[in-house]
Every structure is written in C-alpha cells, then in structure tokens.
Amino acid sequence: MSLSGIARIRPARTRSTEIRPARSRRRGMIAALLAGTALAVGNVSTASAAAGSAGYDPTQYPVILTPPLHPISADRASEILHSCAYIDNAAYHVVLGATTAAVTKNEDAIVIGNDGAGNWIYCYGLTGRAVSYPQGFFPGIGNDDLTEFNSGSDFNTMPADGADPLFFLLTNGGHYSSRVARITVSYGAEAKEYPAIMHNGAYYLSTVTPYIHGDPYNPLSYVRAYDAHGKLLYVTDYSKL
Questions:
Q1: Are 208 and 101 spatial neighbours (Cβ–Cβ below 8 Å)?
Q2: How many Cβ atoms sit within 10 Å of the Cβ of residue 191?
Q3: 210: helix, coil or strand?
Q4: Minimal CA–CA distance to 50: which of 219, 208, 216, 212?
Q5: How far apart are CA 47 and CA 140, in angstroms?
Q6: 27 φ, ψ to 5°?
Q7: How many whole angstroms separate alpha carbon 8 and alpha carbon 114?
Q8: First and final CA of the chain: distance in angstroms?
Q9: How far apart are CA 28 and CA 181, in angstroms?
C-alpha cells in the first residue's frame, strides 16, 4: 500500500479492568454487530445489537471496518491544502491526499503537506466546503524513526437531535525515517495490526468502528514501525502524551 495521515488529540482513557470474554462468545458479539452493519459509498450505517453485552468492552476489543481508501485528485488535494485555515500554507506542498474510510459532517478527505524545511501539516476537507481545517501539526510524540500526532476520531451523527452517532471514524498519521519499511495500527487490546499507507515519508490509516450506546470513547490506537527485517522500531506510548 502507499499514501498518508493524522488526528485530533484526546485524553488517554483509563484502561478497562474487565476480563476478556471467551473467544467463541466474543465472535458471536462481533457477528451480531457486523450483521447489522452495512457499508455504503461514502457513508456507513450500523446497528449496535451487541451494545451493553456483559464482559464486552468495545474500546478494548473493537469491531474494526476497513473500507478502501483512495487517492484524491491533485487539484482537490491542492485545494484542501491551500484553503487550510489558520496557517501560512503558501510554503507547503502536497505529500499525500486520500479519502477517509467514511464520510462525516466534517470530512471526507485528508491532505498531508510539507514545507520542505521539516514542517508538516495535516488538513481535512469536505466536498462542497470552501475552507478546510488543520487537524494537527507535526511533530507529536515519537522517536527518531517515527513521529505521530497521536490518534483522532470523528462522529457520523444520525439526523435526529440527540440520537447516538452511527460510528467513529478513526484516523492515524505521521511521518517516518528511511529505516522504516512497514507501519501498522492496532486498536485496544486486539492483536491484529492493520497496515498503514506509506508515501514519501508520511503514513496514514483511516478505519471505522461502530458506536456502542452508552460508551462515548473510541478505542485507543497503537502505531508500530518495523524495519525491513521485522525489527520493531517504534510503538505508541500513551504515557508520553
């Protein structure tokens, strides 16, 4: 894969002390969620049938959906970058532009830019909106091999006032050194790692997780960087936030 991204900082959530449910039981809960989940072009709708199931913590064992991410046109990427509010964006050029995993009321695409002097910016745009907005500035937390601006999320909200959101749109991004050959993101306590898009020194991943009624938190994400031999060079450390 190849492309890139970033997100809003949120306070680290206190980790749950709940016992992980038996795998067969957990599969049933996930199946119930996915049975009510339909991915549509540019949007996601979901039913949270398993909400509140005893022993199931969606922030620790989340259902992760991975709609395909697509490059956006050079013209649109430039438009998003150069309409990005609150920054002197004239010096920045586009490093990567891609769609998000789903559309929210705030965004449907992201652009990462670099000014050639080691400064980076991440902006999110929405089709039909004249102004885009910076979601984060580099640097963030990291080491010599990978810098991330932490993780972020956005809601897709149902039309009815006061209704629960349908899902969390999750985004991760940052930049990496020449030693890095692979970057992945995992969520909560789950072991599965999802490959990030990598392009010209920047990385990005966007995924979706169903919103669970009564739990306002999205799952914590963990970014890992590996060299060409599989050696771990970096993993997210929330104690540094």
A1: yes
A2: 5
A3: strand
A4: 212
A5: 35
A6: -60, -40
A7: 19
A8: 29
A9: 36
Contact 77, 94 (CB under 8 A): yes
173 vs 160: CA distance, rounded Å? 32
* 119 CB neighbour count, 10 Å cutoff: 14
Say which residue, 93 or 26, is predicted with more confidence.
Answer: 93
pTM for this one?
A: 0.73
Cβ atoms of residues 110 and 123 within 8 Å: yes
Taking CA atoms, 92 is separated from 77, 115, 137, in Å, by: 12, 4, 12
Whole-angstrom CA distances from 225 to 43, 169, 172, 205 are 30, 22, 13, 13
CA dist 68 and 191 (Å) reads: 21
CA 57-103-78 angle, 5° bins: 130
d(CA 148, CA 138): 7
Question: Residue 11, exposed/middle/buried by CB under 10 A (0-12, 13-18, 19+)?
Answer: exposed
Say whether the peptide bond before residue 139 is cis (omega within 30 degrees of 0): yes
Cα 10 from Cα 191, distance rounded (Å): 22
Q: Where are the beta strands (DSSP E) in 7-132?
A: 37-40, 43-46, 93-99, 109-114, 120-125
pLDDT tens digits along 104-115: 888 899 998 888
Strands lying side by side in the sheet with 109-114? 93-99, 109-114, 120-125, 133-137
Least confident stretch, 21-25, 28-32, 137-141, 202-206:
21-25
Residues composing the chain? 241
